[in-house]
């Protein structure tokens, strides 16, 4: 069996597929890439414990057949090829890769050794890739990294008529993004945040087809098919902790605020929650931090609502900066009164985004 | 005391000085930056165990005085400043840094706490910075990284009338570069390779003044003064191991050969010296590698001298690629006969460079 394919075409798709397949696994089958030869192209597929992936690579193919090779080795070789074109010659036991005057022979594995993956063609849901990406990136950062209850490491999707919300929280901060449109699907599901990252990497332009079935969300977009395993467990009832009343709020450039917080936090004690203090009074926000090396301060003019009050509140600097990330222009930072109750971040140019940050106790 | 200075001017010099000063040290004095205020500028100085550094920063200075601050904290703050200009206000105990609406106060330390460093103005030697940089970079890579006798981690400089040679070896490979000119200094010295790296970073255009005295090489170049502690011990008698006769040699593009070796070595077993095999016969060089994942091969047409012989030799791929690094155009790779005796690399466009690589035993 022989395949001729431009190096760039193969390398681009392979890198997205290879990243999902674990380079090392206690189950050696999991580190394999399956290669199926079809009329008009190659089909590459593989799986981690959380994601199945399949992608088509348009190519000049003679013959049919199924093969398996160690994914990261194949990827490493393809990336290094010297010429613009690649020839793959496949026998039962060996994959010969030729490009220019360079040749590599890799051992093949029986295709039955790979994880069994299947992809449905029944995908009743649909959403635009740009919109899906915007919603997922706006919420995903608020998911917990590790050492937390599993659902805190996921992104919840709330799907209904005229409703698509992505929401994540680690208990100290929360973010959601509403698309205000339906996908044709209904239900609440939790997708692991790391699976969301992989989905985001393959999203380009055009429609994304979706289905929910058998504990997974299936996605089809362009040449890619993905199955994302869903998380079990109850997502926290987050809406009840979002404050409704804000005696004081300030409006200013989100990037200006984020830069100032980053700068001031250089003096913050990293072992004490990376604390920065924010004082708001008379249309001026003063950000300060103090640690063993010294003290830093920056003042920013702001548009203040609730001018008869002043605000003193402390945050983990990173949580505040993360919450500002999705805001393109001006941000409204809203204070719910007592210094320990949550602050809310809204994008003045986009009502669909909301973030909440729980202040640090100031003792 | 007050200093006004453009942020970029201060940040550029500070980064070169700060990199030499250890961020952490069991001797807290070593992690300090000394700041002296002089007419027309700041003088920043500090020391590691191997290098003393001093640099002038032109600035608008009112007053005189000497201060000390934790170097990496000062560097971190200066890099993050928001505006183009910086004001430093120094009192006995505190350095206040102001830039735009941002202010930081850092604790100062008594200047007597810093390491005592002095820099000579008697520098009888002189060399052009470009030439010094070329010689040092061409030899430095061949020095050992660690776990070797100390002199193998140094670069030897051989200074005499009409002679400046930089040479380094780790016992498995060797590189030297001859400038064929005198500096006004005489003697053989060994400079730690890491100190050579720091010297290379501050070399720009123009003359470099040198002196050898009291176990150190002193360097003055532009606004920088450095003292590089010299290494003690006998450098190996390397010239006697460089072969004189080469029954076979090949000539080809150095970059083409390096790329092919890198590519082929992807299949090499990293735990077995990263071995690549080179076969030369009838004007074709064939590079192969074999490991647990498979086998790779690339053929390159070469200009071969000694065409009645064939050559089979094995190298650590990285050592061969490193040796080709300083060669801009075509390289001559010269084989000394038996497969275990060293190969020599010459730059066809620059007689001053020589590298030697000891082949792997092929048993």
Structural account:
The structure is a homodimer of 363-residue chains. Helix content of chain A is 18%, strand content 44%. The longest helix of chain A has 14 residues, at 7-20. The model of chain A has no long low-confidence stretch (mean pLDDT 94). In chain A, strands 14-11-12-13-26-25-24-18-22 form a nine-stranded antiparallel beta sheet. An eight-stranded antiparallel beta sheet of chain A has the order 6-2-3-4-17-16-15-10. In chain A, strands 5-1-7-8-9 form a five-stranded antiparallel beta sheet. Chain A has 363 residues and is α+β, with helices and mostly antiparallel strands.
Chain-wise SSE layout:
The structure is a homodimer of 363-residue chains.
Chain A: E1 2-6, H1 7-20, E2 32-38, E3 41-47, E4 51-58, E5 60-62, E6 65-70, H2 71-80, E7 85-90, E8 94-99, E9 102-107, E10 125-128, H3 129-140, E11 154-160, E12 163-169, E13 173-178, E14 187-192, H4 193-202, E15 207-213, E16 216-221, E17 224-229, E18 248-253, H5 254-264, E19 275-281, E20 284-291, E21 294-301, E22 303-305, E23 311-316, H6 317-324, E24 330-335, E25 343-347, E26 350-357
Antiparallel strand pairs in A: 1-5, 1-7, 2-3, 2-6, 3-4, 4-17, 7-8, 8-9, 10-15, 11-12, 11-14, 12-13, 13-26, 15-16, 16-17, 18-22, 18-24, 19-20, 19-23, 20-21, 24-25, 25-26
Tell me, rounded to a whole number, the average pLDDT of chain A: 94
| Largest sheet strand order of chain A | 14-11-12-13-26-25-24-18-22
Rounded to an integer, what's the Rg of chain A over CA atoms? Answer: 25 Å
Largest sheet of chain A: 9 strands, antiparallel
Oligomer kind: homodimer
Approximately what portion of the residues of chain A adopt beta-strand conformation? 35-45%
* Range of helix content of chain A: 10-25%
Distance between the termini of chain A: 71 Å
Tell me how many strands of chain A there are: 26
Low-confidence stretches of chain A: none
Largest interface: A-B, 31 and 30 residues
Quick one: overall form of chain A?
elongated
Q: Please, how many helices of chain A?
A: 6
Overall structural class of chain A, as computed from helix and strand content, comes to alpha+beta
């Amino acid at each position: 069996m022989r395949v001729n394919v431009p190096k760039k075409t193969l390398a681009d798709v392979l890198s997205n597929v290879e990243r999902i397949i674990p380079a090392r696994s206690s189950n050696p089958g999991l580190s394999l890439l399956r290669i199926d030869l079809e009329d008009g192209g190659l089909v590459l597929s593989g799986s981690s414990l959380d994601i199945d992936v399949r992608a088509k690579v348009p190519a000049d193919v003679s013959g049919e057949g199924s093969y398996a090779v160690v994914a990261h080795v194949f990827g490493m070789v393809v990336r290094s090829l010297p010429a613009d074109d690649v020839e793959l010659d496949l026998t039962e036991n060996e994959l010969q890769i030729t490009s220019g005057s360079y040749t590599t022979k890799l051992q093949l594995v029986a295709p039955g050794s790979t994880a069994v993956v299947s992809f449905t063609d029944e995908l009743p849901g649909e959403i635009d890739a740009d919109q899906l990406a915007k919603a997922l990136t706006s919420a995903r950062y608020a998911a917990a990294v590790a050492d937390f209850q599993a659902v805190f490491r996921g992104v919840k999707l709330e799907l209904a008529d005229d409703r698509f919300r992505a929401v994540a929280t680690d208990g100290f901060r929360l973010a959601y993004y509403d698309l205000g449109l339906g996908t044709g699907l209904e239900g609440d599901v939790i997708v692991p945040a790391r699976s969301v990252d992989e989905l985001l990497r393959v999203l380009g332009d055009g429609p994304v087809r979706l289905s929910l079935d058998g504990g997974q969300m299936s996605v089809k977009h362009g040449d890619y098919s993905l199955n994302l395993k869903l998380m079990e467990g109850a997502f926290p009832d987050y809406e009840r902790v979002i404050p409704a009343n804000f005696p004081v709020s300030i409006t200013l450039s989100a990037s200006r605020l984020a830069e100032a917080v980053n700068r001031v936090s250089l003096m913050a004690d990293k072992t004490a929650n990376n604390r920065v203090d924010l004082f708001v009074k008379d249309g001026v926000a003063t950000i300060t931090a103090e640690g063993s090396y010294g003290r830093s301060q920056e003042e920013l003019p702001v548009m203040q609502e609730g001018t008869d009050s002043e605000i003193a509140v402390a945050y983990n600097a990173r949580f505040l900066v993360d919450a500002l990330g999705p805001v393109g222009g001006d941000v409204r930072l809203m204070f719910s009164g007592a210094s320990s109750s949550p602050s809310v971040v809204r994008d003045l140019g986009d009502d669909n985004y909301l973030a909440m940050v729980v202040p640090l106790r100031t003792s």
